[in-house]
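Format notes (please read before filing issues)

Several people have asked whether sequences and structure tokens are stored in separate files. They are not. Every record keeps both together, in the order shown below: the sequence lines, then the token lines. Line labels are part of the format and must not be stripped during preprocessing.
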Amino acid sequence: MPPLSTNQLESIRRLLLDPLRETIKAEIAQSHDRLASTLDRLAEDFATHADQTERRIALIDRELARQKSFRRKLAGLYAALTVLLSLAWSVARDKFLANFHSKD
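Then the structure lines:
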């Protein structure tokens, strides 16, 4: 087979390589667009999830604060009841002992 001339090589390049190069460029551009679109959707999903998580954390913080407040009130109530019951027990015991000693 005789060597190809410059014109023949140029014709082959135009027929084969140029369309192939354009096809590859188009595929790369399309892949880039799909990737960019996917990344945009992921960023939106991430922002949505972050907002939902922040709302959940805010709800949990409020509930925790409410429960801490309830525990403080309950502890105060128990402390007051303990003091009152101790005082009542002391008074009742003193009266019982006074009655017991007065009968002797």
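For reference, the curators noted about this record: Residues 85 and 99 are 21 Å apart (CA to CA). The longest helix spans residues 6-103.
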